[in-house]
Amino acid sequence: MPRFARAGLFAFLAGVALSACERSATPKAPSLGAPAPAFTAMTLEGEPVALASLSGSVVVLNVWATWCIPCREEIPQLEALHREYGAQGLKTIGVSIDAAGMGADVRDFATEQGMTYPIWLDPDHQFSLKFLTVGVPETFVIDRAGVIRFRMIGAFRRGDTTLAAAVRRAMAS
């Protein structure tokens, strides 16, 4: 086999091998209808908490940060859902991605904003890594079986009813 043919064959096979490795190493975001990834965080009190502990409940997970202006704007809508459906079993969780050591600041912010739903701290961005979030805010609705039923990338606009509709569908199933 001529030298150039061998070099070409080698380059082709190396390219195929590398592309196969790259495809298998590229994580995929969990899709609608797929089980929610396992995830643990810390409560504002410093206790570990796992998403699995909410199994059997409909869960709204909202990823946010204190410095995020759109996150602030959607807090009233999340709070309204928490108040309306909390007694029926809805678990609304705010997942803060603020830096480590900011728990007190996050607690103060939540109090100032009137957030009465639980806040979980995720300074290492494990939630973002497992759910492959794009940024903040980002919101997920997970049904009682632990399946992702809704995902919203970005903030909800005032008067937007898509999250409430997703919660109602999940609560009815």
Automatic annotation (TrEMBL):
InterPro entries referenced in this protein's UniProt entry, alphabetically: AhpC/TSA (IPR000866), Thioredoxin-like_sf (IPR036249), Thioredoxin_domain (IPR013766), Thioredoxin_ResA/DsbE_sf (IPR050553)
Subcellular location field: Cell envelope
Pfam annotation, one family: AhpC-TSA
Secretion signal, residue range per the UniProt entry: 1-19
GO molecular function, one term: antioxidant activity
Keyword Disulfide bond applies: yes
Gene3D superfamilies: Glutaredoxin
Keywords: Cytochrome c-type biogenesis, Disulfide bond, Redox-active center, Signal
UniProt domain Thioredoxin: residue ranges: 30-173
PANTHER family in the cross-refs: THIOL:DISULFIDE INTERCHANGE PROTEIN DSBE (PTHR42852:SF6)
Entry GO CC: cell envelope
GO biological process: cytochrome complex assembly
Protein name in the entry: TlpA family protein disulfide reductase
Primary site of residence: other
